[in-house]
Amino acid sequence: MNSAEPVRTFIAIELSTELKTQLAEAQARLKARSPGRAVKWVNPEGVHLTLKFLGNVPAGRLPAIASAIERAVAGHAAFAIHLAGLGCFPDLNRPRVVWVGVEGDLEALEALQRAVEKELNALGYPPEGRRFTAHLTLGRVRDDAAPDERRRLGEAVRAIVLESGASTTVHQVSLMKSDLQPTGAVYTQLAAAKLKIAGGL
Predict the structure, then answer these.
(1) CA nearest 113: which of 194, 12, 9?
(2) Mind listing the pLDDT tens digit for each residue in 15-57?
(3) Is-contact 23 83, C-beta < 8 A?
(4) Tell me: the pLDDT tens digits for 137-169?
(5) Sheet containing 48-58: which strands, arranged edge to edge?
(6) Which residues are identified as catalytic?
(7) Domains annotated on the chain, with CATH
(8) What's the whole-model pTM score?
(9) Which stretches within the chain are classed as H helix?
Protein backbone atom coordinates (compact mmCIF):
# COMPACT_ATOMS: atom_id res chain seq x y z
CA MET A 1 0.00 0.00 0.00
CA ASN A 2 1.39 3.43 -0.98
CA SER A 3 2.09 5.50 2.17
CA ALA A 4 0.23 8.46 0.65
CA GLU A 5 -2.75 6.39 -0.45
CA PRO A 6 -5.85 7.50 1.49
CA VAL A 7 -7.58 4.94 3.70
CA ARG A 8 -11.08 5.63 5.03
CA THR A 9 -10.76 4.84 8.73
CA PHE A 10 -12.49 5.06 12.09
CA ILE A 11 -11.95 3.89 15.66
CA ALA A 12 -14.60 1.63 17.12
CA ILE A 13 -15.68 -1.09 19.51
CA GLU A 14 -16.60 -4.24 17.60
CA LEU A 15 -19.72 -6.05 18.79
CA SER A 16 -20.19 -9.59 20.04
CA THR A 17 -22.22 -12.13 18.07
CA GLU A 18 -24.94 -11.91 20.75
CA LEU A 19 -25.36 -8.16 20.30
CA LYS A 20 -25.42 -8.47 16.51
CA THR A 21 -28.18 -11.09 16.82
CA GLN A 22 -30.21 -8.73 19.03
CA LEU A 23 -29.71 -5.93 16.50
CA ALA A 24 -30.90 -8.17 13.65
CA GLU A 25 -34.04 -9.05 15.63
CA ALA A 26 -34.79 -5.38 16.36
CA GLN A 27 -34.24 -4.51 12.70
CA ALA A 28 -36.59 -7.29 11.56
CA ARG A 29 -39.35 -5.98 13.86
CA LEU A 30 -38.92 -2.47 12.46
CA LYS A 31 -39.03 -3.71 8.88
CA ALA A 32 -42.28 -5.54 9.60
CA ARG A 33 -43.90 -2.38 10.99
CA SER A 34 -42.58 0.06 8.37
CA PRO A 35 -42.37 -1.78 5.04
CA GLY A 36 -41.20 -0.09 1.87
CA ARG A 37 -37.93 1.42 0.76
CA ALA A 38 -37.87 4.52 2.98
CA VAL A 39 -34.92 3.20 4.98
CA LYS A 40 -31.55 1.94 3.80
CA TRP A 41 -30.92 -0.72 6.43
CA VAL A 42 -27.44 -1.47 7.73
CA ASN A 43 -26.26 -5.09 7.73
CA PRO A 44 -26.18 -6.01 11.47
CA GLU A 45 -22.94 -7.92 10.87
CA GLY A 46 -21.24 -4.62 10.07
CA VAL A 47 -22.61 -2.57 12.97
CA HIS A 48 -20.05 -1.23 15.44
CA LEU A 49 -19.88 1.37 18.22
CA THR A 50 -17.90 4.24 16.70
CA LEU A 51 -15.65 6.16 19.08
CA LYS A 52 -14.12 8.46 16.45
CA PHE A 53 -14.46 8.79 12.67
CA LEU A 54 -11.22 9.84 10.99
CA GLY A 55 -12.18 9.84 7.31
CA ASN A 56 -9.50 9.51 4.63
CA VAL A 57 -6.09 9.09 6.25
CA PRO A 58 -2.75 8.60 4.42
CA ALA A 59 -1.74 4.96 4.83
CA GLY A 60 1.63 6.08 6.20
CA ARG A 61 -0.08 7.60 9.25
CA LEU A 62 -1.84 4.39 10.30
CA PRO A 63 0.99 3.09 12.54
CA ALA A 64 1.02 6.38 14.49
CA ILE A 65 -2.76 6.20 14.88
CA ALA A 66 -2.55 2.59 16.09
CA SER A 67 0.05 3.66 18.67
CA ALA A 68 -2.21 6.51 19.79
CA ILE A 69 -5.03 4.02 20.38
CA GLU A 70 -2.65 1.88 22.47
CA ARG A 71 -1.85 4.92 24.62
CA ALA A 72 -5.54 5.81 24.89
CA VAL A 73 -6.61 2.42 26.26
CA ALA A 74 -3.67 2.09 28.67
CA GLY A 75 -5.03 1.92 32.20
CA HIS A 76 -8.64 1.37 31.09
CA ALA A 77 -10.24 -1.86 32.27
CA ALA A 78 -12.69 -4.01 30.30
CA PHE A 79 -16.35 -3.13 30.95
CA ALA A 80 -19.85 -4.32 30.07
CA ILE A 81 -22.49 -2.82 27.77
CA HIS A 82 -25.94 -3.90 26.57
CA LEU A 83 -28.60 -2.67 24.14
CA ALA A 84 -31.27 -0.31 25.43
CA GLY A 85 -34.12 1.16 23.42
CA LEU A 86 -34.73 2.44 19.89
CA GLY A 87 -34.60 6.03 18.74
CA CYS A 88 -34.09 8.37 15.79
CA PHE A 89 -31.91 11.34 14.95
CA PRO A 90 -32.90 14.14 15.03
CA ASP A 91 -36.23 12.95 16.50
CA LEU A 92 -39.16 10.55 15.95
CA ASN A 93 -41.16 13.10 13.95
CA ARG A 94 -38.34 13.75 11.46
CA PRO A 95 -36.33 10.52 11.41
CA ARG A 96 -33.11 10.51 9.40
CA VAL A 97 -31.15 7.85 11.32
CA VAL A 98 -32.61 4.88 13.22
CA TRP A 99 -30.50 3.73 16.15
CA VAL A 100 -30.34 1.41 19.14
CA GLY A 101 -29.12 2.89 22.40
CA VAL A 102 -26.33 1.49 24.55
CA GLU A 103 -26.35 1.21 28.33
CA GLY A 104 -24.14 -0.43 30.93
CA ASP A 105 -20.93 1.08 32.28
CA LEU A 106 -21.35 4.34 30.36
CA GLU A 107 -18.91 6.14 32.65
CA ALA A 108 -16.14 3.77 31.54
CA LEU A 109 -17.24 4.02 27.90
CA GLU A 110 -17.25 7.82 27.91
CA ALA A 111 -13.87 7.96 29.68
CA LEU A 112 -12.44 5.65 27.03
CA GLN A 113 -13.88 7.77 24.22
CA ARG A 114 -12.42 10.95 25.76
CA ALA A 115 -9.01 9.27 26.00
CA VAL A 116 -9.20 8.34 22.31
CA GLU A 117 -10.13 11.93 21.41
CA LYS A 118 -7.22 13.30 23.48
CA GLU A 119 -4.60 11.08 21.84
CA LEU A 120 -5.94 11.65 18.32
CA ASN A 121 -6.17 15.39 18.89
CA ALA A 122 -2.42 15.35 19.56
CA LEU A 123 -1.97 13.83 16.08
CA GLY A 124 -4.00 16.58 14.43
CA TYR A 125 -7.47 15.01 14.48
CA PRO A 126 -9.54 17.40 16.64
CA PRO A 127 -12.63 16.30 18.58
CA GLU A 128 -16.06 16.63 16.99
CA GLY A 129 -18.08 19.62 18.06
CA ARG A 130 -21.02 17.51 19.23
CA ARG A 131 -21.13 15.49 22.42
CA PHE A 132 -20.46 11.75 22.15
CA THR A 133 -23.72 9.76 22.21
CA ALA A 134 -23.32 5.99 22.45
CA HIS A 135 -25.54 4.45 19.77
CA LEU A 136 -25.61 1.76 17.08
CA THR A 137 -26.99 2.73 13.67
CA LEU A 138 -29.64 0.35 12.28
CA GLY A 139 -30.60 2.32 9.19
CA ARG A 140 -30.64 5.67 7.41
CA VAL A 141 -33.78 7.24 5.97
CA ARG A 142 -33.51 7.92 2.23
CA ASP A 143 -33.64 11.58 1.19
CA ASP A 144 -36.62 10.89 -1.09
CA ALA A 145 -38.70 9.15 1.62
CA ALA A 146 -42.27 10.48 1.69
CA PRO A 147 -43.55 12.28 4.81
CA ASP A 148 -46.04 9.45 5.40
CA GLU A 149 -43.22 6.88 5.29
CA ARG A 150 -41.24 8.90 7.82
CA ARG A 151 -44.29 9.16 10.06
CA ARG A 152 -44.89 5.40 9.98
CA LEU A 153 -41.23 4.74 10.75
CA GLY A 154 -41.34 7.08 13.74
CA GLU A 155 -44.48 5.33 15.00
CA ALA A 156 -42.80 1.93 14.61
CA VAL A 157 -39.74 3.05 16.57
CA ARG A 158 -41.99 4.47 19.30
CA ALA A 159 -44.07 1.28 19.53
CA ILE A 160 -41.30 -1.32 19.73
CA VAL A 161 -39.91 -2.10 23.17
CA LEU A 162 -36.56 -3.84 23.25
CA GLU A 163 -36.24 -6.50 25.90
CA SER A 164 -33.11 -6.15 27.99
CA GLY A 165 -30.70 -8.61 26.43
CA ALA A 166 -27.51 -10.12 27.72
CA SER A 167 -24.62 -7.76 28.28
CA THR A 168 -21.28 -8.14 26.55
CA THR A 169 -17.81 -7.23 27.76
CA VAL A 170 -15.75 -4.69 25.82
CA HIS A 171 -12.21 -6.10 25.65
CA GLN A 172 -10.57 -3.99 22.95
CA VAL A 173 -10.71 -0.93 20.72
CA SER A 174 -10.13 -1.38 16.98
CA LEU A 175 -8.77 0.77 14.18
CA MET A 176 -11.05 -0.03 11.26
CA LYS A 177 -10.87 0.42 7.50
CA SER A 178 -14.04 1.13 5.53
CA ASP A 179 -14.29 0.23 1.84
CA LEU A 180 -17.39 1.75 0.24
CA GLN A 181 -18.87 -0.76 -2.21
CA PRO A 182 -22.11 -0.60 -4.27
CA THR A 183 -23.58 -3.26 -1.96
CA GLY A 184 -22.56 -1.37 1.19
CA ALA A 185 -19.46 -0.72 3.26
CA VAL A 186 -16.98 -3.53 3.92
CA TYR A 187 -15.08 -3.22 7.21
CA THR A 188 -11.61 -4.57 7.98
CA GLN A 189 -9.77 -4.41 11.28
CA LEU A 190 -6.33 -2.82 10.82
CA ALA A 191 -5.17 -2.88 14.45
CA ALA A 192 -6.55 -3.50 17.94
CA ALA A 193 -5.59 -2.38 21.44
CA LYS A 194 -6.70 -4.50 24.37
CA LEU A 195 -8.16 -3.14 27.60
CA LYS A 196 -7.02 -4.43 30.98
CA ILE A 197 -8.75 -7.53 32.28
CA ALA A 198 -10.41 -6.92 35.65
CA GLY A 199 -7.98 -7.97 38.35
CA GLY A 200 -5.13 -8.12 35.85
CA LEU A 201 -2.17 -5.86 35.23
Answers:
(1) 12
(2) 999 999 999 999 999 999 887 889 999 999 999 999 999 999 9
(3) yes
(4) 999 999 999 999 999 999 999 999 887 777 899
(5) 48-58, 6-14, 172-181, 184-194
(6) 48, 135
(7) 6-194 (3.90.1140.10)
(8) 0.90
(9) 17-33, 62-73, 106-122, 147-159
